[in-house]
Specification:
The protein has eight helices and four strands; from the N terminus they run H-H-H-H-H-H-E-H-E-E-E-H. By secondary structure, the chain is α+β, with helices and mostly antiparallel strands. Helix 1 (2-22) crosses helix 6. The model has no long low-confidence stretch (mean pLDDT 90).
Length: 178
């Protein structure tokens, strides 16, 4: 079921991405889609109203038609969201937005990753890591910082399938294996 759902979300994402590519607005559409997804997922009441099968489609449409213009969604993205509602796919919005973001990143030569450290990294260290990962991947790297005190020290960086583990924990585990 998850793979079916994933293929459906990719199809919807590709359709909007193609429309955005055709009119030169694919990045703007992705930003709008992401903001709407974040807003819906950030509000339990809104999410429940939009995905609850007990709430009539006409009520959901009314909610969306009043909300979407207020958040500055373009006419195309508004129609896309309403199409998702009509097709019963509004529950897939977060997955569609994620798939759309991956398409945009791929088109623009970007990759996303995380860098996890035991303590927060200062700006210079974070930028050095981002720069090194960009050099290694040959792409622009959009990096998210996370803190995990269980690392003890060092960092773990992940960009796509590439994982660089320079944590103290992994070094100690390697030493104990040797």
């Amino acid at each position: 079921m998850a793979s079916l759902s994933g293929s459906v979300s990719r199809r919807y994402a590709r359709a909007l991405f193609q429309l955005g590519s055709d009119n030169g607005r694919f990045e703007a559409y992705g930003n709008e889609l992401g903001e709407i997804s974040t807003m819906v997922n950030g509000s339990t009441e809104l999410r429940q109203a939009l995905v609850n099968p007990v709430v009539k489609v006409s009520q959901k449409r009314s909610i969306l038609e009043s909300l979407l213009p207020r958040v500055g969604a373009s006419a195309e993205v508004q129609r896309f969201i309403l199409l998702l509602l009509d097709r019963g796919r509004l529950g897939e919005l977060a997955r569609i937005a994620g798939d759309y973001q991956r398409l945009t990143d791929e088109r623009l030569g970007r990759v996303r990753g995380t860098v996890t450290s035991a303590t927060p990294l200062d700006g210079a260290a974070f930028e050095d890591i981002r720069s090194a990962l960009a050099k290694r991947t040959g792409k622009q790297v959009i990096l998210e910082a996370k803190v995990d005190p269980e690392l003890l020290g060092g960092i773990v960086a992940q960009v796509g399938d590439l994982v660089l583990d320079g944590s103290l924990r992994s070094r100690l585990e390697n030493l104990s294996r040797k």
